[in-house]
Design a protein that fits this description.
heterodimer, A: alpha+beta, five-stranded antiparallel beta sheet, five-stranded mixed beta sheet, 12 helices, 16 strands, B: alpha/beta, Rossmann fold, seven-stranded mixed beta sheet, 40% helix
């Protein structure tokens, strides 16, 4: 299917549809990237948040480890020195908010309190907290040199805090340190200072057995099934699951994808408009083309009429060309007859006077009779030749007019035609070489027309002032091909190469010459089903070769012939 | 005379009733104070490395100040904070005269008493005062815990310039008038 056959409205709808679809797809792709960037930003914020939490938590548990090292290495230090250490540690470490340390030694498998500071002191006086302390001790003892965590309700009407325990053995002595991490404070600080906006967070703290010890949620009101969830991340004991709310970071920046979508739509509309413009142009062109085709068709018909008229005129022009040539030979014959008659009359009158004067002799009688016979015979021959000329002319005229398919004796036909020319072109040596029994079934009028064109060309244009003008006509029969080869050749000036090329390629020549030869080609090929070949060497010769079927009825008929026969 | 008697009876009955129970939201208030005090900038008002005295005037030991004092030492800016608890105004005044108080805390009851003169002294000492109720702020206290929409917030007194608020401190305060 050619594109020119597709309706314009379909192309426009296709342009718009494809443009809209492509724009939508591009928007989707870009939106995916924008969403990915948005989620990457959220993931980074999430990661930073968890790192901050972990750092903050590590700062809370660091004092117990530092104090344990101090206490073990300086066992003789007094409680005042420990307090100085605690206050100094609090002052010199910006990340430390409070010091909560309980220091115990293990004496006969019992906890012996050495020193406490801050909220760790609560375990001294509060009997309700002691089970928690002992439980932590037991667990810490099982995993020495490692921090152990458990929850403890250190304050009434408040969430439990985290109790960290650290069991250590050194020089056959065992030590146990505790610290209370104020989870309420930590949670409040995180809530007020660290929680990113528009992220719903669930923060879990795992114990050594990877069980959840406690869990915090931040911005729980943002939890929504439609929110995007980030991959759960872990740092140390902290696990963080996050949902990203739509408003995070002012939402997904869809400006680029929106712009691409709008630009795509505008582009497709522009393309559709351009196609519409082309469609209008095509419509106008079609109308112009239809008008032109109509005009062309009319002109073609007119041209065919002109061509037919031209052919007809050309055919009858042959007669008008041949007639003067034929009639040109008649006057000398008539003149000869008149001369003979005048001479006979003169001699008759002279012989009559001799008879009256009775001076006529027998020899004069005989001489007069011989002369009379000779003159009468000569007059009769001249009259016969003149009559032949007229007969030939009449025959040619009839053939041209009727031009019906008939058996043509080629030698006679050629000879008659050449005889017509001979009177007017006595300087030309006509050589006819045709088998005497060669008969061809053809259109005699068209054949005469053809031969006239070639002979006229040779006689009128082929020879200049040369003395040895030879025009040779030769016809042979090829039995294998059942074709008659007819050749007309002169030794004249030949045809100019560019003109010859124009004739052979059937192209118009700038000088508007060669029309006759072009017409001859058409007669040979279209009507007589033959082939024509014209060869010439400039200023040397011109040779026209025709291959004609011997039997025209064996050839397929053309439309014009069919119409003619009908 | 009758009016003065009624006021006395009311004060005594209020005092008696408050003594029976713990301060409301003491744990939460201690949290807020702990965080807020961390971010107070004392650089222009107090000598560097000097410990600060936290003086609380409460009706009993179940106050936010006592809860906060369980930590024994806390930080306020670059200073370490010592806790001192008082249950009578005179005791507080004496301590202030002798050692000086840098941070005051008045519980619900004492915040509603006429402590204007003490708060004026606190302002003169560039000391920070924390109380409860609007009355406390009206008496030129620095900040007070106030109930707003069912939530307890620590509201700063916009008409007093003892402390300069910064971003982190502002996170724990209600700075609306």
């Amino acid at each position: 299917m050619k594109i020119t056959k597709v309706p314009s409205w379909l192309i426009i709808i296709l342009c718009l549809s494809i443009g809209a679809f492509a724009s939508f797809k591009a928007k989707q792709q870009l939106f995916g990237l924008e969403q990915q960037n948005w989620l990457s930003t959220a993931a980074q914020v999430n990661s930073d948040f968890l790192s901050g939490i972990n750092q903050r938590f590590n700062e809370q548990i660091k004092p117990i480890q530092n104090f344990a090292a101090l206490a073990i290495s300086n066992q003789n230090d007094s409680n005042d020195q420990f307090e100085q250490f605690a206050e100094s540690y609090l002052l010199t470490h910006p990340g430390i908010d409070e010091i909560s340390i309980g220091y115990y030694q293990i004496d006969e498998n019992r906890l012996s309190h050495q020193w406490s500071f801050g909220t760790a002191s609560l375990f001294l006086d509060n009997d309700e907290l002691k089970p928690s302390l002992l439980n932590l001790y037991r667990n810490a003892k099982q995993t020495p040199n490692q921090l152990i965590y458990q929850l403890a309700q250190t304050q009434q009407n408040f969430n439990p805090n985290l109790l960290a325990g650290y069991y250590f053995q050194h020089s056959n002595k065992s030590y146990f340190f505790i610290s209370v991490i104020d989870l309420n404070n930590l949670h409040y600080e995180i809530t007020q200072l660290m929680v990113p906006d528009h992220l719903s967070l669930k923060l879990d703290f795992m114990d050594d057995s990877h069980s959840q010890l406690f869990s915090w949620t931040f911005n729980p009101e943002l939890v929504n099934k439609e929110n995007k969830s980030l991959e759960t991340i872990s740092v140390a004991r902290w696990h963080l699951s996050t949902q990203v709310a739509e408003k995070f970071n002012q939402g997904i920046n869809t400006s680029k994808s929106d712009n691409i979508f709008i630009a795509g739509l505008i582009l497709s509309v522009l393309i559709a408009l351009f196609v519409s413009f082309l469609a209008i142009l095509r419509y106008l062109s079609r109308q112009e083309l239809q008008l032109s085709q109509l005009e062309l068709s009319e002109n073609k018909d007119l041209l065919l009429n002109y061509q037919e008229n031209l052919k007809r005129s050309a055919k009858f022009a042959v007669y008008s060309q041949l007639a003067p040539k034929a009639t040109q030979a008649i006057p000398p014959y008539i003149s000869n007859v008149i001369k003979a008659c005048s001479s006979l009359e003169e001699k008759g009158l002279h012989f009559k006077s001799l008879i009256k004067e009775k001076k006529a002799t027998k020899s004069q009688y005989l001489s007069f009779l011989d002369n009379t016979v000779v003159l009468a015979r000569g007059s009769a021959e001249s009259m016969l030749k003149a009559g032949t000329c007229l007969f030939n002319l009449e025959k040619i005229k009839q053939e041209l007019e009727q031009d019906s398919l008939s058996q043509v004796h080629l030698q006679t036909h050629l000879q008659d035609l050449v005889d017509t020319y001979k009177g007017a072109h006595s300087e030309v040596n006509f050589i006819i070489t045709v088998a005497p029994d060669l008969v061809i079934e053809t259109y005699p009028g068209s054949l005469t027309h053809l031969l006239t064109i070639f002979l006229n060309n040779s006689l009128e244009h082929g020879f200049k002032d040369q003395s040895d003008q030879v025009l040779m006509i030769e016809a042979t029969f090829n039995k294998t091909k059942n074709r008659v080869s007819l050749r007309i050749e002169d030794n004249g000036t030949g045809i100019e190469p560019d003109l010859l090329e124009a004739i052979n390629t059937n192209q118009p020549h700038p000088k508007c010459v060669g029309i006759g030869l072009s017409m001859a080609r058409e007669i040979v090929e279209a009507q007589m089903h033959g082939e024509l070949d014209i060869k010439s060497k400039y200023e040397r010769y011109t040779r026209v070769s025709m291959q004609l079927p011997k039997d025209q009825t064996a050839q397929p008929k053309t439309e014009s012939e069919t119409e003619k026969q009908d | 005379m009758l009016k003065a008697f009624i006021q006395f009876i009311t004060l005594v009955s209020l005092t008696f009733s408050y003594q029976l129970k713990a301060e409301d939201n003491s744990a939460f208030k201690s949290l807020v104070m702990f965080q807020a005090l961390k971010y107070v900038d004392w650089s222009t008002t107090k000598k560097a490395s000097k410990p600060l005295n936290f003086c609380s005037l409460t009706q009993n030991e179940h106050s936010a100040a006592h809860t906060l004092a369980l930590k024994k030492r806390i930080k306020s800016g670059q200073h370490i904070v010592y806790f001192n608890h008082f249950y009578r105004l005179a005791e507080l005044s004496d301590f202030n005269l002798e050692f000086g108080c840098d941070i005051y805390y008045f519980d619900n009851l004492f915040s509603q008493l006429n402590i204007r003169q003490h708060l004026a002294t606190a302002v003169q000492q560039n000391s920070l005062s924390i109380g409860n109720s609007d009355t406390f702020l009206l008496q030129n206290g620095t900040m007070a815990f106030i109930e707003k929409s069912g939530k307890t917030v620590l509201q700063i007194n916009p008409h007093q310039a003892v402390i300069q608020t910064n971003d982190k401190l502002a996170s724990f305060l209600d700075i609306s008038e």
